# Entry
Amino acid sequence: MKFTASRTAITLWLIFILGCSAIITRSHFTADLSAFLPRSPTPAQQLLLEQIHDGLASRLILVGIKGADAPARARISKQMAQQLRQNSQFVSVNNGEPVTAEQDRAYWFNHRYLLSATVTPERFGVAGLHNAISDSIDLLASPAGLLVKSMLPHDPTGEMVELLTQFSNSRPPALRDGAWISHDGSRALLLIQTRASGADTDAQQLAMTQIEQAYQLAAGTKATTQLEMTGPGVFSVKSRNTIKAQVTLLSIISVGLIATLLLLVYRSPTALILGFMPVISGALAGIAAVSLGFGTVHGITLGFGTALIGEAVDYSIYLFVQSEQRQHELWIKRYWPTIRLGVLTSIAGFASLLFSGFPGLAQLGLYSIAGLITAAAVTRYVLPHLLPDNFHIHDVTAIGIKLSCLEQNAPKLRWLAAGMLLLALAIVAKNHDHIWDDKISSLSPVSQADIALDTQLRADSGAPDVRYLVVISETTQEAVLRSSEQVANVLQTQVERGELASFDSPSHYLPSTASQRTRQASLPTAEQLQENLTNAVLGLPIQANRLSPFLTDVASARTQPLLQLSDLRGTSMAMAVDALLIHHGSDWRALLPLTALPNTEINAAHIRAALHGLPNVILVDMTQESNQLYSSYLHEAILLSLGGLVAVIALLLIVFRSPARVLRILAPLAVAVITVTAGLTLLGHALTILHLIGLLLVVAIGSNYALFFDRNTNTPAIAPRTLASMFFANLTTVAGFGLLAFSDVSILQAMGMTVAPGVILALIYSAIFARTAHAEN
Amino acid sequence: MMLFNRLLSIIPLLLCSSLSQAASWDIDQLMHNLALTRSGHATFVEKKTLALLDQPVTSSGELLYAAPDHLEKRTIKPKVENMLVDGDNLDIERGKKTYHLQLSDYPELAAFIDSIRGTLAGDRKALERTYQLSLEGNAANWTLQLIPNNARMQQVISRIRIMGAGDEVRSIDIAQTDGDSSHMQIEKVATP
# Structure
């Protein structure tokens, strides 16, 4: 009967592990911030998410080529661009070569009478023509005259010049040897737009590989140049790789460290291997659960896995150290209820995170619940069956007795502890208004060096750094374009008033049908124009007969078919319109990005006031929106953690039915949490959501210690073996989390810095306060 | 007045050529002298003759130069206009509007501006990228002729002739392939 039970348990466990592994091999892993941004109700936040996932800026890769000399860099840039342009993964590859210049020019020139806002009936009357032609003649005398000379017979009113003025606001990088270079001339620059969205990390990684390959091919093997890449997609790929590499490295080191520690304690390789079974099972179950529940697994969740090794290994330590030789039945009877309560307490604490609207947080909640339940269940139901008959570990009673001495002396420290608590409380109270960091950038796993390179390349290439967007929503393309034209008029006034450097609008490239019709209707008939022109050139040094191409062009513009979206195909503006004019379900949306004047910030209030009264038009500050979003989730997380605390208290009250006892159990944990918070604040760390999770973990792990120390007056003094088990469990936890504190990835570092000191304090405070409570009883 | 100046300027030349070897005067020597001028301020009068127009258009204003590649042309008549060239960037301000152009986007305009900038900077290499150079006259009264050396430029410009005295540029004549031409007279503004 017993034999069957053990076989059943082991078989079920193996099937479970295989199942989890199968799920994990099909899982997707991400590392971008978007996983931390949930679906949210406001239109601005919805837009923010879409832009982060799929916006123009999210699909941009900025490439720099450093080293060698300018001609070599330009040659590499051109060869790379040529190869990448043939790849359908890339929507556009821009390095200053005039690939679409001909098409762009033809689009503007052939449709100038539909595109130019200056086309009005007055402009084609006698006076209007006279003034416009007179201006054009003045322009001939200027240095730019060389450019307009050949166009003048076709375009004496200068519509082309008008269009150029409107759209020459942005300043592309300088050219050298036929390719873009940076301001300081040290780099060749390329701006690449991927077809895949920035949130598709796998596709971004593929794009990066292809850029790398094109570079290798162009630069050759003996290259003295270096390739640099940046952009949101590159950041996602890099952080995913960094997190993966760090998690792998830290896992190996922490497993090695914990294994060495345990080997020293157990002096039995079998015990060591068996001791890791619950940990591995828990980690696999956690990742599989998150993968099933969320579709993708975030890198932070993986980092958390490393940390969990430190906690889940405790259960097997308790089993091995606490149970007398081969008396696992007795251990199950005497100690399992305490451990089970510890696991339940942790679950109660973490369950609240499942309700978070913040997927990153919900992932951590699900991960820890699945991981802890599995690790504990494997320890309880599978591990005893796996132990061989001759299983034994080194007797640790000697260490336990030494610890007992320490424990008996611990209460002497209670005044010191009380003093520290008061100090910690004072620090927390003094800094209470800036303990939390509510900027989303605090979560970013991107390194400072990468951010610096990004800033540099962005400044050099004039790539959009989309912070302010005017967003217009309508139900038809025509309506949204008409509204864009109105907004563009308002924004143009703001440009003239010096509030803005420039702005972009889809209506620049594709005017509404209404505007195109109006402009077409402004053009006079051939006879009328001929007559007006003859009168208009009177007094000007030009003969009307020289302008006959103008008459032909206007005549054909009068019957020209109106511009459609498809007419932009093959021009560089197609990409711009694709990003600025979005068809979303039954909704049409226009985005008008604003550019600030150099070294100034846009005054959002002024722009909002100017746009006031226009229906369905909003100004979105992407940076502020994302910070606000994060800040609201931070507050939600704090509330949820408090909810978790209430759940823990409720659970303990139901089990013990004694408020005093529950207070005794929780007091050392609360003190540990406050001390760690004060310590971090004192060291100048503003707390993020990951610190908060760390504090929750301190409570979850610490509750085990507190429960072991907790006892009624009639129970005997704590056994030396139990003390030893807690000491070892604590050491392994500190080893696991302590390593995270040395990570370059700020989010992992945050968790390590919180948990490692927190669990040490939780153990010490539990010893100090438990004894005091005992004496009082 | 002009004639008088020229006569005066011949005197040191006569002294010069009698004292040293006349053979040392060449394009390199001219470029070297021009390169010594790090900045300059002058007035200009420009007359353009265009087939399209019945009569030539005349403009005038100021020129400012700072080595190696900053050039400003402030037209005052017939309309206030400011042209600023810095490296590859060309800004033209007319009334309320500013046009930003990249010289590299307009090779003809770039070659044209570089003929002036290259001469002022004494940058023979830059000039020879686009033009074949030939020099006539002497240090006190020289004529530098630039003939485009590539087919693309030859379609636009047939010849540029720059005349000067010592390290000063006095006039620039441009003959375009289509028969249009321009003549710019430059006069140095004495710097205090």
